[in-house]
Amino acid sequence: MSVNEQVYFTLNTGAKIPAIGLGCWSGTTPEQNESAYPWIMSALKNGYRHLDTAHGYGTEGVVGRAVLNCGIPREEIFVTTKLPNNHHHKVADSLEESLSRSGLTYFDLYLMHFPQAFADEPGDDYRVVDSPTFAETYAEMEKLLATGKVKAIGVSNFSVKNLTKLLETAKVIPAANQCEMHPHQAQPELLPFCKEKGIIMTAYSPTGYAPVREDPTMIQLAEKYNVSPAQVALAWDIARGTTAVPKSTDSKRQIGNLHELPKLTSEDVSLVSTLHKNVHYCQAPGPKERDGHKLCMGWTYEQMGW
Fold first, then answer.
1. Is 48 a catalytic residue?
2. Binding site for substrate: which residues?
3. What is the pTM of this model?
4. Residue percentage of the chain with pLDDT more than 90
5. Which of 66, 10, 51 is nearest to 254 (CA)?
């Protein structure tokens, strides 16, 4: 691929979203967050036009600064951020915080980071609260569209179970659903469900960490196409019609992830999909189990729909 051959998909709003974006999580301290600035600028220089951040990442400020300082017209850069769990009760105010922190006047996509709501100060044990429900939170997000401060809204970490519940009351179909997705978590039920509803899926942790990159089949395909296993995973995402937001701080890998992806044969796309193990490698902080039930951010896997 050359710089001029980036792949774009179309959201249900009609907006174009670059298939490959840059994941902008950079740690948990202010110093780590600030350290993201040079590699975000590097990515923009290397042709990236899709930046994925979140209130919870702590990098909205450096992302906004990079967008404003890079010399690229704002309308050419697609910026996603996310509503945190402990702001479900103050959606409009939280958006204003994110805009103020970033220095931007709008976001291209605003996602509900997780379906479960937290108390204002959730603490280390993730104090999940019953109200507002994710349907009520999403209804408040729908109101943001009229302000022009978000161009599209969507969700993240939503399963078929929770999307089905949300769609019972939603007036606006989510434009996107961002989830952990890689060859060992291929989302075989969720992906076709989202496609049927007109919801584009975005993969976070798209290269699947070491277990995927060291999978013998991925290594074999990487050798076949003369690329890395990570590039095979990203090419598989594109072939399935999903966007992906890999994090890379290295300029050479940024270029490889964006401009040097192979075009997989349909047989190889199917082969990669057979590697699905229904595992979640990306572990959110906090307790991992309660009363014998696996947990994610205070909810059981059953509540998550996993």
1. no
2. 113
3. 0.95
4. 86
5. 51
